[in-house]
Amino acid sequence: MVDVTVRGAGVFGLAVAWACTARGASVRVIDPGGVAAGASGGLVGALAPHTPDRWNDKKELQFQSLDMAEALWAEVAQAGGTDPGYARTGRIQPVGALELATERARNAEDLWKGRYRWEIREVADFAPFAPVTPTGLVIHDTLTARAHPRKATAALAAALSAKGVEIVPEAADQGRIVHATGAAGLLALSEEIGKPVGAPIKGQSALLAHDARDCPQIFVDGLHAVPHADGTVAIGSTTENAFTDPDRCDGGLDDILGRIVRLVPALRDAPVLERWAGLRPRARSRAPMLGPYPGRPGQFIANGGFKIGFGMAPIVGELMAELILDGVNRIPESFRVEASLPKG
User: Fold this and answer.
1) Using an 8 Å Cβ cutoff, are 149 and 10 in contact?
2) Model-level pTM greater than 0.90?
3) For the residues of 296-308, what is the DSSP string, one character each?
4) What CATH number does the domain containing 237 carry?
5) Model confidence over 197-227: pLDDT tens digits?
């Protein structure tokens, strides 16, 4: 008999399992597809903040999660002996409006608690792995980090196994139950209540052979270029509300590959090593969906990571463990399950 059953071995499910285990609970993780079978098995791994302006509870919670990530991933690596591919390498992006970029730099000093910088730099400082920028300037933030999605989930799984947690394809539910079942879970809940609470969004990304492992990642024209420690650069991603085949790479990926080599010339001759397509869970509120499962006492939901799942995983694990084990609910209203439930 375990205290907590977690259904779903993506990054949210594994993070919740880790936080519960750290509090002394016995945990079992169940996923028929295995670790990172869904969106968490992608390629990109950009752990990047929203802009430091128009601050709200979503941005504050994301900041807290990004801030605590370094310690979490170091702990995970030590416990399981597996490298999650985490590093706080920063990010650069072209400066558009200089006045706005300068204002945000001032905001970041306060909003980011003096721990990280949002600064305007010459693009030449980062050459050759740098974006095309008409102004010759880039914004460099030191809060952004990377985590290799597959390596990070494998590291969490190894750390959990080292703590005696089973990750199995199927078993009976025991104790309190957490549903961290991604896109399929959003569809199931929508069907259960008869109203949409979110939707699967198709994303496509690619992995290129280019060694920029010590460089900041790049965000340009809506695209991420994330250097990983293994000498690859992940490019992504598309955002597709309508699709016919969720797992097929198509012209949408060809389009972003064509764009990225124009925007980041250093990648022009980089071979494509892998292409990936899959469904990511986006809750109706556009924020992660966390809290008690409607109408099911003793059951909980941790879903809706969409593009920020790896960045939010550290704080999601902590908030959910507090709720599940201690009955303490510190989840901001905009992140609660109710925020994604249609009214009426």
Assistant:
1) no
2) yes
3) -TTEEEEE--TTS
4) 3.50.50.60
5) 999 999 999 999 999 999 999 999 999 999 9
